[in-house]
Design a protein that fits this description.
The structure holds two protein chains of two kinds.
Chain A: E1 3-12, E2 24-32, E3 36-41, H1 47-54, E4 62-67, E5 70-71, H2 75-84, E6 85-88, H3 101-111, H4 116-129, H5 145-157, E7 163-167, H6 175-190, E8 195-199, E9 211-216, E10 219-224, H7 226-231, H8 233-238, H9 245-255, H10 267-276
Parallel strand pairs in A: 3-8, 3-9, 6-7, 7-8
Antiparallel strand pairs in A: 1-2, 1-4, 4-5, 9-10
Chain B: E1 3-10, E2 20-27, E3 32-36, H1 43-50, E4 58-63, E5 66-67, H2 75-81, E6 82-85, H3 98-108, H4 113-126, H5 131-134, H6 144-156, E7 162-166, H7 174-190, E8 194-198, H8 202-208, E9 211-216, E10 219-224, H9 226-230, H10 233-238, H11 245-255, H12 267-279
Helix pairs in contact in B: 3-4, 3-6, 4-6
The chains are: A alpha/beta, B alpha/beta.
């Protein structure tokens, strides 16, 4: 299948820092439509820079970034490219502009100059997809963190993108808010077929990703499925990445001689494994 | 008693609902307190009451026996005693050098240059930043984790007795997060601090705290040890607060008839408990 997103031999560093190391180095990446790609790595590993390269906020120092066949350096295509690929950032408060939820979601489509019936349709659909229909007339500042972030997602969806990029969307949320956002993202990927690129520090949020890319020092250090990655407990420790506590526990139990699968991410799975020992 | 909160109610305006409703608790010197609850449950309001940023609508707050809600109170001395590290404190860094940023508070206390320098040195060491290497650097050109540490050091340099940390590891990567937690544990001991930690990370709170306060819609619904609180797991889950995922394994095993402890929160301890329990019925050969 044809790639939706393609990075060819991409290098990036900030202009004023020519003597310094590359922020991103030698990135080759193809993402197929409908994939759920997770990106993890330290602060400073280049994850967020990658997100900004994808929609042309930043342009590669060398190499080429294509979205839907369009190159990000082509100024004329950039507007359309950004409709195709929307980004959701960490802090929902910085992303909401209007005083009423539905007006906020309508902001993007209005700027496209769409007829009002079409805008209405898109806003309703976007709010439905993130489960916020009941809050259409609410004031954003009265919402919880998770709800605000879902409104921010609706604002991006209303542009009808093919791909959504999430840059640590749950970093500022409480556990319930995190759960809401993760469920929304999974729904959009599975039911609506949107391509998702999801940057996070929370490993337990990406156990359903198709592929996980581990960034370190500006490079893709490791690319694997969640099952492959989470069994490499030693490797994850070396990279100082989070290991889901349950996976860590399963690993330690197997080290102690219990014959159990260490490919485990939830307490329910681990309990099932342990009870099979009988 | 270092901190005593007595029947405190608070609302931001007459028209609005109570943000805090009849809250009472005590904290002794040297305790490590975890404060949990949803966004909007009143946690931030509560900690702002503790250092006099807000005066409660009703009720009293005593710090070392002094009623800080009284009109004639010297708030400056209260803020010396109770240091507050806000969420994302690095957004409040503003000086040109790391040294000046940390020295800002102590300078306002009117301390001598020599004492200030001593404090900057000591607090930088407490957050694992090398004095010589960092003192002249611009706080804006540091990594996120380094900025967070400088911001924490700025509050520590005031030598508070109580340090309140609101989500001190939010947004940090796992490695930095663990380092910052270790530093907190270390400097708590070093300065004999009383700590109030607000965190959404249950495994963090359950492992670190001597006692946990749970706020729900402005009410203090639990004030107990982690081991006692874990018994309320059903209620916590209803509240959307959950319990550490690894502790859930113990509960599930118990439900299936195994006789084992459920009040453990650390992976290593839980592993031991499971191994011990499963060895007994002879499931494990060794």
């Amino acid at each position: 299948m044809e790639s939706l997103i393609e990075l060819k031999d991409v290098y990036y560093r900030y202009q004023e820092q020519e003597d310094e190391d590359w922020v991103l180095e030698n990135i080759d990446l193809e993402i197929t439509a409908g994939e759920f790609i997770a990106i993890v790595g330290h602060n400073g590993s280049g994850k967020s820079t990658l997100a900004k390269l994808l929609n042309g906020i930043l342009l590669p120092t060398q190499g080429e970034v294509r979205v839907g066949g369009k190159v990000t350096t082509e100024q004329e295509d950039l507007w359309q490219l950004r409709q195709q690929l929307g980004i959701v950032f960490q802090n929902p408060d910085n992303q909401l502009v209007a005083n009423i939820v539905e007006e906020d979601v309508a902001f993007g489509p209005e700027n496209l100059g769409l007829p009002s019936a079409e805008i209405r349709k898109r806003v309703d659909e976007a709010l439905r997809l993130v489960g916020m229909t009941d809050f259409a007339r609410a004031a954003p500042h009265k919402l919880s963190g998770g709800q605000k972030q879902r409104v921010a997602i609706a604002g991006v969806i209303a542009m009808r993108p093919d791909c959504l990029v999430f840059d640590e969307p749950t970093a500022m949320l409480d556990p319930q808010g995190r759960q809401e956002v993760v469920e929304t993202v999974e729904h959009l990927n599975r039911q609506e077929g949107l391509t998702v690129i999801y940057i996070t520090h929370f490993m337990e949020e990406i156990i359903n990703a198709d592929r996980i890319l581990v960034f370190a020092d500006g490079k893709v250090e490791l690319a694997a499925t969640p099952k492959e990655l989470f069994t490499k407990v030693d490797k994850l420790r070396d990279l100082a990445l989070d290991i889901p506590q349950i996976t860590e526990l399963a690993y330690q139990l197997s080290e102690s001689g219990l014959d159990i699968d260490t490919n485990i991410f939830t307490s329910t799975e681990l309990v099932e494994e342990l009870c099979l020992l009988k | 008693m270092l901190i005593e909160v007595d029947s405190v109610c608070h609302r931001y305006s007459q028209e609005e609902e109570m943000v805090l409703n009849d809250i009472s608790f005590k904290i002794e010197r040297g305790e490590f307190i975890g404060l949990i609850g949803h966004t909007g449950s009143g946690k931030s309001t509560l900690v702002q009451l503790l250092n006099g940023l807000i005066t409660p609508t009703a009720g009293q707050v005593y710090i070392s026996g002094e009623d800080i809600t009284a009109k004639e109170i010297n708030l400056k001395s209260i803020r010396e005693q109770v240091g507050l590290v806000f969420q994302y404190p690095e957004h409040q860094l503003f000086e040109e050098t790391v040294y000046d940023d940390i020295a800002f508070g102590p300078k306002n206390l009117g301390l001598s240059e020599q004492v200030i320098e001593e404090r900057v040195k000591q607090t930088l060491a407490s957050v694992n930043l090398d004095y010589q290497r960092f003192k002249e650097r611009s706080p804006f050109k540091l990594s996120g984790g380094q900025q967070r540490r400088v911001a924490i050091a700025g509050v520590l340099a005031m030598r508070p007795e109580v340090l309140i940390l609101d989500e001190p590891t939010a947004g940090l990567d796992p490695k930095t997060r663990n380092e910052v937690i270790e530093e907190i544990v270390k400097f708590k001991k070093q300065f004999n601090l009383t700590i109030i930690l607000i965190s959404h990370r249950m495994e963090q709170v359950f492992q670190l705290a001597d006692r946990i306060l749970v706020l729900e819609q402005g009410e203090l619904i639990f004030d107990c040890t982690p081991a006692e609180l874990i018994k309320e797991q059903q209620r916590l889950i209803e509240l959307g607060l959950s319990i550490p995922e690894v502790t859930k394994v113990l509960f599930a095993l118990k439900e299936r008839g195994y006789d084992l402890r459920t009040d453990l929160f650390e992976v290593a301890e839980i592993k031991e408990e499971i191994v011990k329990t499963l060895i007994k019925p002879g499931i494990l050969k060794s």
